[in-house]
Amino acid sequence: MASGYYTILGSLPHLPHFEMAERLPLTRLRLEQRISMLEAEEAKQLYLAEDLISQRKAVASQRTYADMAKRFRKGMAEITQPVLRSYVEDRIDQMTVLAALRLRREGRDLSKGGVNWGLGRRVRYIESHWNDPDFRLTSNYPWLPEARNLLEADDARGLDRFLLNINWQALGWIADREPLGFGGVVAFLFKWDILNAWLVRNAERATQKFKELMGEVKHGQ
Amino acid sequence: MDSLILTLGWIGMYAPLALGAIGSMVGCARAGMSAAGALLDVESGYGRYIGVAAMPSSQSIYGIVVTMALRRDLTIDNSPGIFGLGVLVGLALMASAFAQGDACAASINASKNKLEIFGISLAPAALVEGFAVFAFVFALVLSAGIPK
Which of A46, A168, B36, B61 is the most exposed place for a label (fewest CB within 10 A)? Predict the structure, then answer.
């Protein structure tokens, strides 16, 4: 079925950069119809990964750390596609690093360990480098100092935009490596998620712009 | 030993056609699947995409011509040359058809979103075709030096 990626990717429209887009070029229904052309196992893994890290899903819906950890372990055990697994791990690490920055800002000290607070590969490493401003992770995550600065400046919107850009860029690299393979599908799905999340967050601004446009049309008549 | 050398000669004689055809099958299938996907996303210009998907078929034609040029009574003297020339040009044609299929698929994906780049987006596929033509022409030139 590997060659089926050609059909799926051929059927997907171009996704403009999320900051430039005014609307989704493909509805969720159409996207799922196109993804249904994948093998069932691949589609299942994609949705599982989306469920773990999607911009669409509310993290708050997972009530306790134990629930989150259980869901994460179960999901990662089923995601076997290397490109998808790698992206999910990177996103989970990103969330963990951000959680650590927020906890430290609240004055918490996790250097002694023994507290359940994060998921993924970097939890113990972060705990052991708790007093380093960037947890000695800047070589792995060059975006970390800028994210920390934005967090310390209480610029939530700037941080959100910055991280979405980082993730968008990472997905671009995945698509470049496999433009006609599974990586291309992975990149499209998660870029679509980012775009959707951005447009939803900007719904208020869009409503305002719509009113302005309507006003212009009315005055023009 | 003689029969082995003659067998290699037969392999070399048919290799350009067989390998070129395999390449065309895969290349046309890849570009064709991409064209089929594009049909779901566009409202017009269907023929354009299907036409692009046919580009990797030329390698089969080159293979047929080289096979005809290599066709002769096989002997111990000419079989090694036919094997070397036939297999290598066959591999070159096959690889170029694979690559051209991918280039055509990429061209279809790009041009369906931006129609004005349709022509220029085919340039990579045309470049790949150019390398197939090099392999084809020089196979013909060198085949003249193989004893009849």
Answer: B61
